[in-house]
Automatic annotation (TrEMBL):
UniProt-annotated binding residues for Mn(2+): 112, 135, 137, 139, 216, 218
Name of this protein: Agmatinase
Any Pfam family the entry gives: Arginase
EC assignment: 3.5.3.11
Transmembrane segments: none
Cofactor needs: Mn(2+)
Protein species of origin: Metabacillus lacus
Range of residues in the leader sequence: none
Gene: speB
Length: 293
């Protein structure tokens, strides 16, 4: 895929026509090859774009308009169906090019494993990287039923790469006992059940550091986001997630990239989940792109 070529279908609302002039690049990662429960997140990026047409272009939360930030929707990265390793390699190569050109990468998944090659690429440029992770699940397994390439493994992979002490997970309410034990013993930060309040306590400690942020839509309670592959009761509200995005925007961290993953529109015929995701992306664009180094 050539960066300067726009997506052939719908684009995220107010996408800028020029890749070169844009600060940020939105890109889709339509992969769900390794999911352990319900597939369908490969259709998430396209549907989020489609419903974004219904978004207001102005954010009353941030008092900013989408005209205030230039972002280019590059479309979905073409990925070989069913080939997990090759798909991850393609994603990493793509992000390497974005980083070389000084763009802010804003990814849409796809299953959560797609975040792994992105974070790995960002780490090449920012060796003092920290990761903020919002999710229902720990994603700290080393493998799932013998398969190391699984959507249950990306946070363990990035923790092993950058050091567990540099990974901060929030909203976690599901995982194996061994995963929680490993995190505790390794010095990784996990905030169970909540996001906003523990996040506010952590953000000052990350001031000035390059931070990548990955959000799994299932951090929300299924009442707020039923369209996802592995729903898990007891999650946070969309209001709390929005407030968490804004708290990050108001902090002193340097945001070097982000993604929003695991929207599976086939399980939500009302499009509630996709519409929520598109609003979250609007707030991420308006609040986070200006905070890149």
């Amino acid at each position: 895929m050539r960066f300067e070529e726009a997506y052939s279908g719908n684009v995220f609302i107010k996408s800028h026509p020029s890749f070169e002039e844009s600060e940020a690049v939105i890109y889709g990662m339509p992969m769900d090859w390794t999911v352990s429960y319900r597939p369908g997140s490969r259709f998430g990026p396209a549907r989020i774009r489609e419903v974004s047409i219904g978004l207001e272009e102005y954010s009353p939360y941030l008092d900013r308009h989408l005209d205030d930030v230039k972002y280019f929707d590059a479309g979905d990265i073409p990925l070989p169906f069913g080939n997990a390793q090759r798909s991850l390699d393609i994603i990493e190569e793509y992000i390497d090019s974005l980083m070389d050109q000084g763009k802010f990468p804003l990814g849409i998944g796809g299953e959560h494993l797609v975040s792994w090659p992105v974070m790995k690429s960002v780490y090449k440029k920012y060796p003092d990287l920290a990761v903020i992770h919002m999710d229902a699940h720990t994603d700290l397994r080393e493998e799932y039923e013998g398969e190391p390439l699984s959507h249950s493994t990306p946070i363990r992979k990035i923790a092993n790469l950058i050091g567990p002490e540099n990974v901060y997970s929030f909203g976690i309410r599901s995982g194996m006992r061994e995963e929680f034990q490993w995190a505790k013993e390794a010095g990784m930060h996990i905030s169970k059940f909540q996001v906003l309040e523990p996040l506010k306590e952590i953000l000052p400690k990350l001031a000035g550091r390059p931070v990548y942020i990955t959000i799994d839509i299932d951090v929300l309670d299924p009442a707020h986001a039923p369209g996802t592959g592995t729903v898990d009761a007891g999650g946070i509200t969309s209001r709390e997630l929005l407030a968490s995005i804004h708290a990050i925007a108001e902090s002193d961290i340097s945001i070097v990239g982000a993604d929003l993953v695991e929207v599976a529109p086939i399980y939500d015929h009302s499009d509630q989940t996709a519409n929520t995701a598109s609003k979250l992306l609007r707030e991420m664009l308006l609040g986070w792109v200006s905070k890149r180094p």
